[in-house]
Amino acid sequence: MSTTDALLEAARAWIAQDPDPETRGELDALITDASAGDADAIAELHRRFDERLAFGTAGLRGELAAGPNRMNRVLVAQAAAGLAAYLVEKHGKQASVVIGYDGRKNSRVFAEDSAKIFAGAGVRTILLPRLLPTPVLAYAVRHLDVSAGVMVTASHNPARDNGYKVYLGDDDQGSQIVPPADSEIAAHIAAVAAGGPITALPRSSAYALADESLVYSYVAATAAVAGKLPKGVDLEVVYTAMHGVGWDTASRVFEAAGLPLPVSVAAQQEPDAAFPTVSFPNPEEPGALDLAMQTAREQGAELIIANDPDADRFAVAIPDASVESGWRRLTGNEVGTLLGWAAAEEEAGTPHGAHHVPGVLAASIVSSPALGVIAAHFGLEHAVTLTGFKWISRAPGLLFGYEEALGYLVNPETVRDKDGISAAARFLALALRWKAAGRTVADQLEAIAAEIGHDASGQISLRVTDLSERGRIMDRLRAEPPQTLAGSAVTSFDDPAAGVPGLPVDNILRILTADGSRVMIRPSGTEPKLKVYLDVRGGSKTDAAAKLAALDAALRELLAA
Fold it and tell me: Which pTM was predicted?
């Protein structure tokens, strides 16, 4: 049998077990064209069938289409059956799972398919009552005391994507999976895929549907992060859900906390899997907040806040007359500094017993070193973790954690994952307090800088079409490390993958320079990008900005070499 004949046979076998008429139809068209010798169709089949979408610590995430290297009902059924086998192996008859889903295409279908397969495997299964934010699912894992949680979402990825994120209960306290659980689950999924068609998997409708009391409980617990609010102070705020599921839950939290209810960007308020007003539904992306800024100008607002489509990330923009739009989005590091300072200040000002252990401020290895400076300023511990909240959430004694990619954990006793809704409630409460004290958000940033120094951070995302290109660039830098950057001598070139004291082992490069600048370079874990993180310290805001611009130019030249 030729390679093409084997490929066509695999594709026909896939169609035979696929319950989705849309993916069956588009795969059947590919098979017809490939059978007629169409080179493009044959190449597309190879892309879909030569490899399998890998299950890892981020679960599954990929483009919606037919084939084992895409997200679809066959792949999700195999993943659910594999995870069910893992849970039964670990917990026996006590195995249990809660499943949530957002507003992306097929999210509900994938969730309901999973529920039937889990129930059919003998796992006690609870499905959330409707589409809800990822933080509600993360909360439910602990609140319902189940063995695991599954969230069907692709978070801030493009509209054509979906994903399957897994959390563990018990000793993992509702955090996302980490090794070795990921490889153990992957092995079970591989066994299911090799064992026959998904049509043979046992299914059952004997699963429970969680009621609204779960959402009420999350809202009450999350509203508590606002704390006591100043009286007689109002704040004009604009909010965008970015066509996701954040508004309904976030607005309930704001109301329960007594916070001012923001003006919602109407065109982006309701879930819409097509994301019609944004080319990339990520608040970090250029243009993503344009409608929010337009609304803020019309409303005379003082603050913009945003969630990404599944509401686990949080973004802030503030008035700034120096930019054309009149608004500037804060970096994730700036928001992390503001939230981290508030957490540290509150911890330091709270009376504790003699045996109290100071709380820990945690950030990912690529986040700004400023959080460590804050921790030292207040006599707290600072933890540096691998990228991702699966690691940040596990920092012992965690008080506050963040990563520069707009992820914040302000309430670790409630949710062990980044939570854009609790971060929004906490930030609004702080903004009210700063306003009561006569300060804006920008003023608060300056006040912190006056205490600990001026930090500035930036990022370069080098998108690639061939994932191997990321490895080639990393290998070239390892073989030929730069000697200077932006006119400053390189004092340290560290490769944590080879083991560096004080740093977690990771596929990342760290470059330190004589003027105190830091560069971190790593392949993205969820997107076809090489990501570069830039951090500088300056004697003033202007000095720091100039250093950052020079370092950015130097790195772009280095990567293009």
Answer: 0.93
Active site residue 155: yes
> Strand, helix or coil at 457?
strand
Same domain, 409 and 310: yes
Q: Do residues 127 and 115 touch, judged by C-beta distance below 8 A?
A: yes
C-alpha distances (whole Å) from 147 to each of 77, 177, 367, 444 are: 19, 12, 31, 42
Q: How far is CA 337 from CA 224, 227, 430, 449, 504, in A?
A: 21, 19, 13, 10, 22
Strand order in the sheet with 381-385: 381-385, 360-364, 398-403, 407-409
Residue 524 pLDDT: 81
Contact between residue 376 and residue 393 where contact means Cβ atoms under 8 Å apart: no
Residue 132 located in a structural domain: yes
**Are the CB atoms for 62 and 53 separated by under 8 Å?**
yes
Instruction: Name the 3-class secondary structure at 540.
Output: coil
Residue 40 lies in a domain: yes
Amino acid type, 221: A
Which residues form the domain of 3? 1-50
**How confident is residue 526, by pLDDT bands cut at 50, 70 and 90?**
low
Cα 382 to Cα 112, 365, 379, 395, 397: the distances in Å are 41, 12, 10, 10, 10
Catalytic position from the list 147, 155, 368, 422: 155
Measured in degrees and rounded to the nearest 5, phi and psi for residue 125 equal: -125, 135
Distances, alpha carbon 551 to alpha carbons 326, 471, 524, in Å:
26, 22, 21
CA–CA distance, 209 with 98 (Å, rounded to integer): 9
Beta strands in 398-504 (DSSP E): 398-403, 407-409, 454-463, 484-485, 488-494
Residues 191 and 322 in one domain: no
Count of domains for the chain:
4
Eight-class DSSP state of 306: E
Mean local confidence (pLDDT), 259-283: 96
- Which among 100, 91, 82 is positioned nearest to 138, based on CA atoms? 100
Element housing 240 (H / E): strand 237-240
111 has a pLDDT exceeding 80: yes
Task: Read off the pLDDT of each residue in 496-516 and give the average, rounded to a whole number.
Answer: 85
Nearest to 244 by CA among 305, 194, 297, 309: 309
Counts of helices then strands in the chain (DSSP H, E): 17, 22
